[in-house]
Design goal:
The protein is built from 8 helices and 8 strands. With about 180 residues, it is α/β, with parallel strands linked by helices. It has one domain: Rossmann fold (3-Layer(aba) Sandwich), CATH 3.40.50.1000. About 40% of the residues are buried. Magnesium ion binds next to loops.
Length: about 180
Amino acid sequence: MKGDLLAERCKAIKLLLTDVDGVLTDGTILVLPDGGEAKAFHVRDGLAIVLAQAAGLKTGLLSGRSAASVAHRAADLKMAVVRQGVRFKGPALVEICAELGIEPREVAYVGDDVNDLPVFAQVGLSAAPADAPLEVRNEAVMSLSAAGGRGCVREFVEAILRARGQWDEVLRTTLGVEPS
Ligand SMILES: [Mg+2]
């Protein structure tokens, strides 16, 4: 996609939505003896979600599976949308947009597997981590350099905020970081 078209799409975004397993995590599911699940999240993705919020974006997650640890992480990051246990993600996206009063083209979404493709087909901006299957990366607007659970959401957020001209300002106002 040409840079100016990509920038236009970034400027329209109102919601940053992400898959969980394979995107916010590396896909590993640690099953604990009590049947609960533990997941490992990357801290840079967490900070990127905070920065996206500071830039005025709503944030959320859309997961096919369901785990208490994910609900804790979403609450910690003050995400506005938390949808777990969703088998059909395409209709779920339509519902989320209706609830927020936004259009699918105003959503940026990161997903790593074939169940994310119905979302890719609707949103304004889609992205896949570096380790996603080829058929998923081929359908994404952005094929990211970072892998799932290794900062791919950070890479996506930085690209969006830079395209919107907000990256430097958000670093300054949120973290007191002066751009070099
Ligand atoms: Mg996934």
